[in-house]
Write a structure and sequence with these properties.
- The protein is 42% helix and 27% strand.
- By secondary structure, the protein is α+β, with helices and mostly antiparallel strands.
- The protein has a nine-stranded antiparallel beta sheet with strand order 7-8-9-10-19-16-15-12-13, with no helix packed on it.
- Helix 12 (485-502) packs antiparallel against helix 13 (510-526) and helix 12 runs parallel beside helix 14.
Length: 605
């Protein structure tokens, strides 16, 4: 090292020394590692990753062990990626998930809810539909398993069939769920098949668990709940149903079932066995809130490899009749003595008129005219019967003055008078009685006719529910909080008809006044019934009023009186009929029974 280098090195060392003594800052404190999550995430080292991976693998291993314990050989089907499939025809749109191979939603096309939304008759968000099988490890719900789905279409346009098959391979066998939807209609066929699973399942029985919160489809919740209940039919040809009220109801069916239906007012969701369900547990309840109409449960046991069909559609009598025996019971046609009128006359007449008219108010008017024309002979006989009673009123009044205190004698003499004059006291009533099945049939037909749903006429926006012209700020007991104009018109027409009819009869006292009371009673009863029903009765009253006014123009009381006199001369020496004799004997026996207590009392005194 030369002199210059040594001098430079010394100077450099001197500068470092001076800087360190006078200008260098104090040593910085040591910063402890931060413990917040963000810093931890940033400061992860490669050494941490294997440790984390180990924990995930441990969790997966535990899940696998749990699935293996619960599902056994079926545990390999628990993992998968969910996919959605759709089957659609002219009337239905059904979505499925490969998780379970089960129905997710069902939309009934061509109909809307009361607020004009798509009509979804079944939705997994508000219910559940699941099949269970009996594996060696216990019951396994198919909704936990993933299937492979495939779709196909076969046939021509007229008989086109849409098919969807879900397959799950397990062990040496497979589970297969097949669905078939025709080009039109509301029925969806389904089959659950097993192949080569004899060692994995304990029996060949599947359990169908169906729970549904029935959606609100109509505006009138009270009427909807009244018309919503569960129907079922056994293979022993026994139709039955759960309660139609708001109370809870449940039944355990220990015999084979053919079908079960969740019936609402205008739509039904049902399941039909091609052969039979082994048995079932059925229940229904009414929610406290208005989120759904009713809540229904059905648990059914079904042999494997047996086809069932679902019905999701309208309560149209002609459509339901083609589904399966007695499935048309989901449309309430009334009691036995009036149901035949609806099934064989009114329904066919209604659908026939639909071919020519699209206004349902006009169709109702035409139905009234056709029925009244058909019943005109009975109406004429009823009028003639009342006219005969009217012309012999003087003779009846004489008997009342003569035997007014002796009712038995009065009745006997009346019967004798009727026989002599050739008059029957029931001649005016009997034709009216024969017309009653038609009047009562409408009481069931219009409230349950889906054809009238959301059809407007005049001021009624929907003929299937009441027409409200005024909404009251309060509720009148047994009447409601609205005013139905069609019901008011029906009431006024009935009162007018009663007044006109009383001029033609001999009715007096309470019998005469009851005709004015009944229309008022029906005004309260029918105020919340469908507008179509009140409109029908209004038109019917007006046509009947016109018929009788017309008949009156052609019926001469003088001629009727002449015929009565002819009958009186002809029957002057006529012997009493056996029927008259029996009536008189019965009246005498009744009078004797009344007199016995008085006689005993006299003897005791």
């Amino acid at each position: 090292m030369d002199k210059n280098q040594a001098t430079g090195l010394i100077l450099f060392a001197a500068v470092i020394l001076v800087y360190s003594l006078f200008f260098a800052s104090e040593p910085e404190p040591i910063i402890e590692p931060q413990t917040d999550s963000a810093t931890q995430l940033q400061s992860k080292t490669s050494d941490d990753e294997p440790e984390q991976f180990g924990e995930g693998a441990q969790n997966d291993s535990l899940n696998d062990l749990s699935n293996q314990k619960k599902y056994g050989n079926f545990s390999s089907l628990v993992k998968g990626e969910e996919q959605v499939f759709t089957l659609e025809n002219e009337d239905l749109k059904v979505t499925f998930s490969n998780k379970g191979g089960e129905i997710q939603t069902v939309e009934v096309k061509g109909f809307k809810t009361y607020d004009q939304q798509a009509l979804i008759l079944f939705d997994r968000e508000f219910g559940d539909l699941e099949y269970e099988i009996n594996a060696r490890e216990g019951k396994i719900g198919l909704n936990d398993l993933y299937f492979q789905g495939s779709q196909s279409t076969s046939g021509t346009d007229e008989d086109r069939m849409h098919q969807l098959v879900f397959t799950a391979n397990v062990g040496g066998g497979s589970l297969k769920r097949s669905y078939r939807l025709p080009a039109t209609g509301y029925q969806l066929a389904h089959t659950l098949e097993t192949d080569g699973l004899e060692t994995l399942v304990s029996d060949e029985i599947a359990t169908v668990n169906w729970k549904a919160d029935l959606p609100v489809l109509e505006e009138d919740m009270l009427e909807s709940r009244r018309k919503t209940y569960m129907n079922f039919y056994t293979t022993g040809e026994d139709y039955d149903y759960l309660t139609t009220g708001d109370s809870e109801d449940a039944q355990q069916i220990g015999e084979p079932l053919k079908w079960v239906a969740f019936k609402q007012r205008f739509f039904t969701a049902g399941i039909v066995a091609n052969q039979q369900f082994l048995d079932g547990n059925l229940a229904q309840e009414t929610p406290l809130d208005a989120s759904s109409v009713k809540r229904m449960y059905a648990t059914l046991r079904l042999p494997m490899n047996q086809e069932v069909s679902y019905y999701f559609g309208p309560n149209n009598y002609k459509i339901l009749k083609q589904v399966t025996p007695e499935f048309d019971k989901n449309v309430d046609m009334g009691y036995v003595f009036v149901s035949w009128v609806n099934k064989y006359i009114i329904v066919n007449l209604f659908h026939w008129l639909e071919n020519f008219f699209d206004n349902y108010g006009v169709i109702i008017i035409l139905i009234v005219f056709i029925i009244k024309l058909f019943l005109l002979p009975l109406t004429y006989k009823s009028y003639i019967g009342m006219a005969k009673m009217r012309v012999i009123k003087p003779e009846i009044d004489e008997l009342k003055e003569k035997y007014g205190d002796d009712q038995t004698k009065m009745q006997q003499e009346q019967m004798k008078l009727f026989g002599q004059l050739g008059v029957s006291p029931i001649s005016g009533c009997l034709p009216m009685v024969l017309q009653m099945p038609f009047l009562l049939a409408m009481f069931f037909f219009f409230p349950n006719s889906i054809e009238l749903r959301q059809e407007s006429f005049l001021w009624a926006h929907d003929l299937s529910t009441y027409d409200s012209i005024v909404n009251l700020p309060f509720t009148i007991p047994f009447y409601g909080s609205h005013v139905s104009l069609f019901t008011l018109l029906m009431t006024l027409s009935q009162i007018a008809y009663t007044h006109f009819n009383n001029q033609l009869t001999t009715a007096q006292g309470p019998m005469k006044n009851i005709g004015y009371i009944m229309p008022v009673v029906f005004m309260f009863v029918l105020n919340s019934f469908p507008a179509a029903l009140s409109f029908y009765y209004f038109v019917s009253n007006m046509v009947t009023f016109g018929q009788q006014a017309l008949i009156k123009q052609f019926v001469d009381d003088a001629k009727i009186r002449q015929k009565v006199e002819e009958s009186k001369a002809k029957n002057a020496n006529k012997k009493k009929s056996k029927f008259q004799q029996r009536i008189e004997q019965a009246m005498k026996a009744a009078e004797s029974k009344k007199a016995e207590p008085a006689k005993k009392k006299g003897r005791q005194k």
